[in-house]
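Training component of the fellowship. As part of building independent skills, the fellow (R.M.) carried out the full modelling exercise for a liganded target. The chosen ligand was 2'-monophosphoadenosine-5'-diphosphate. The inputs are recorded below so that the supervisory panel can assess the work.
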Amino acid sequence: MKITGHTKICAVIGDPIEHSLSPVMHNAALQHLGLDVIYVAFRVRGEALEDAVKGVRSLNIYGLNVTMPHKTAIIKYLDEVDPIAKDIESVNTVLNVNGKLIGFNTDGIGALNALRYNHADPKGRRVLILGAGGAAKAIAYQIAASNAEKIVIINRTGEKAKELAKFLRKRFKVKIMGKQLSTITLRKALKETDILINATSVGMRPYNDQTLIDKQWLRRDMTVMDIVYDPVETKLLIDAKNIGAKVINGIDMLLYQGAESFKIWFRVDPPIDVMRKAIIEELERRTGNAS
Ligand code: ATR
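Fellow's submitted model of the complex:
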């Protein structure tokens, strides 16, 4: 594309950031649609966040994605924050409207859309979420808001699972429980699960062979989603696929959260397939498995 004095800039900020797939994904969509925008990545250290946000204003950076470790810390520097992002204390998307910075969170809606587009709407279903960190909170919030029948949150640090369940119970009528990770709690919860979501980092490269779930507890009538996208097929997803369960990989969540950010910035639906192809090609390039 031709970069001129009119070209707008979008960026992702985080630390580390070099391995972010967002530039590849968004630039593919921007080019496909012929928009005069480029998307870059900036490594911003914690202590530099305030200055970075000032820079967004002064350089008129049009849109921002925010990733670890800034999702909560950035809130105090923004002019407005969408009610859900405020409630979960996590912003991953910023829109710059003539110098006014407005924060949003698209992680939860991204996960929800990943489920819906894969014909696994959580409405009326029993959902088990592994993890109680930032990602799990955003996902659990949207699943609770979409009238799941029941949500069980299981986390290594049991207290965090219980706290998250309490937080959600105050806001939604859905039956929600938080439990400490153990063989017993997992096995019991899995017997009453339609949709299993791994929202922990377990299974991420280089620990590809790790999973929290013994494959004999999986059933073919389950949907199994993993937020880990590197590797694309985690051990959990391989096990689930082998018994014939429906699987949704981490690329879908990445894609749909990115698509929601794109809609906030440009008010158009981005080309999902183009974005997916760009991500897969980049992952293949990185692992040297280009086929
Ligand atoms: P994110 O914002 O991506 O959710 P996070 O807030 O650091 O990141 O949360 C990571 C999640 O993965 C947590 O639920 C964490 O469990 P703890 O709360 O007990 O730390 C979970 N996690 C990470 N490594 C894990 C492991 N080896 N076994 C089980 N859970 C793990």
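The panel noted the following from the submitted structure. The longest strand covers residues 8-14. The chain has a mean pLDDT of 97.
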